[in-house]
Amino acid sequence: MNVVMIGAGYVGLVSGACFSEFGANVTCVDVDVKKINALLTGKIPIYEPGLNTLVEKNVKTGRLSFITDLKAAVADADLIFIAVGTPTRRGDGHADLTYVYAAAKEIAKHLKGYTVIVDKSTVPVGTAREVQRIIKEENPGADFDVASNPEFLREGSAIGDFMRPDRVVIGVENQRAETMLRELYRPLSLIESPVFVTTLESAELIKYASNAFLATKISFINEMSVLCEAVGADVHAVAKGMGMDNRIGRKFLHAGPGYGGSCFPKDTLALIRIAQEHGASCRIVESVVEVNAAQKARMVKKIRSALGGSEAGKTIAVLGLTFKPETDDMRDAPSLAILPPLMDKGAKIQAHDPEGMNEAKHLLSEKVNYCEDVYDTFSGADAVVLMTEWNQYRGLDLDRVSKLMKGKIFIDLRNVYEHAVMSSHGFEYFCVGR
User: Fold this and answer.
1) Are residues 17 and 122 in the same domain?
2) Which residue segment(s) compose the domain that 308 sits in?
3) Nearest Cα to 208, choosing from 287, 94, 322, 89?
4) Same domain, 110 and 8
5) Same domain, yes or no: 47 and 190
6) Same domain assignment for residues 187 and 125
7) What is the pLDDT of residues 98-128, one digit of tens each?
8) Could you tell me if 156 and 270 lie in one domain?
9) Which of 44, 84, 305, 389 could be joined to 7 by an S-S link, Cβ 3.0–4.6 Å?
10) Number of domains, the chain
């Protein structure tokens, strides 16, 4: 089976590599010449555990290739996945579908024989219908169907999510397209992964509804963390007690500085706009977005309070910059909302992140001092802010940290450490909801 992946970004590259591992012949197409040239020389443009090995393996077998020539790729394709970016449109919160529709127009020009065009990008309800309309308009004689196959990949564990999914969602209009997609995903039948087939519109909405619900759990426990601090409760205990209820579950009940990344921020906003366009209310999701913004602002106040009411002239060691561990993704990371206000008030930032510093340099002030060695961040620092819970920050030599620092303030925004442990090493410890 010949598969074409339009877009060699996070979703396209991971999906393409995994489909090739399933045995399909996959061609990843991207207009970014630098990206394709890098991939051709074995350089992976994103950090995702295990991706480098998977790509290298399937390139060697000849099942995975990278080109910029869409025409050459499309001609022999059985399935064409559109996996281009759908960022939040500036000013109104809608998903920007410019790249999706441009891809549809280009695909239409070169179709030969029956082909299934699949929306893999996260797109609003009605996008598949519009892609279908565009292709028919550009190429009235084309033999094709359009399908929706949303991705549910968590950055940092994307390959595992693809290879062992909770479910595969397929939106189609006929048996012919369904058969093609079921055949592509057939290797998953060995592990009995459920394939859920539904309409185009339902498949499109499932992705947004899923992400909005997970974001809701995060914002909910963050609101509970505020209440916990007010009444003297422990948010860890509250979350654990809630999570033991199988109807609720433990996942995404971790208090912290708020959600970020490539999905939750833009997908919650897009879902709100979809609802507004169709005259429906989405008040819970609107509140989720508001709570998330408030949580990030509250973290600035928490840090300021821990520093005695003013960060002016203080040196802060920051551990972690990415929105979560095991990724180099800085999109909507809490650090981007928390650190600038501190720097504006005169704080000096010394930061470390295992994978995100190169990207952070483009997004944060030039005044940030990036440290290659994590222990260099503590040199002369008045306080530590643990921003992202990378594993290497969980086992710090606290005695060494204490000796390197000028002050003894440790602000743990991910609740990695315990009060008793930090106090025994002489730290004044601050965390979230405990």
Assistant:
1) yes
2) 298-430
3) 94
4) yes
5) yes
6) yes
7) 999 999 999 999 999 999 999 999 999 999 9
8) no
9) 84
10) 3
Q: Which of 293, 323, 343 delimits the end of a domain? A: 293
CB 255 within 8 A of CB 239: yes
User: Same domain, yes or no, for 388 and 305?
Assistant: yes
Do the Cβ atoms of 266 and 87 come closer than 8 Å? yes
- Provide the token pair at 209: 């509804």
Beta-bridge partner residues of 169: 196
Task: Tell me whether residue 203 is in a domain.
Answer: no
In this structure, the strands spanning 348-352 and 79-82 are unpaired
| Phi, psi dihedrals of residue 144, rounded to the nearest 5° | -155, 165
pLDDT (tens digit, 9 = 90+) per residue, 14-68?
A: 999 999 999 999 999 999 999 999 999 999 999 999 999 999 999 999 999 999 9
Catalytic residues: 263
| Helix then strand then coil, % of the chain, to nearest 5 | 45, 15, 40
Phi, psi of 40 (to 5 degrees): -65, -25
Total number of residues shown for the chain: 434
Tokens read off for 400: 């060494």
Place of tokens 């060695």: 373
List of residues 6+ apart from 270 with CB closer than 8 A:
88, 93, 94, 95, 122, 124, 208
Place of tokens 């592990």: 191
Please choose, from the candidates 320, 317, 321, the residue with its C-alpha nearest in 3D space to the C-alpha of residue 331: 321
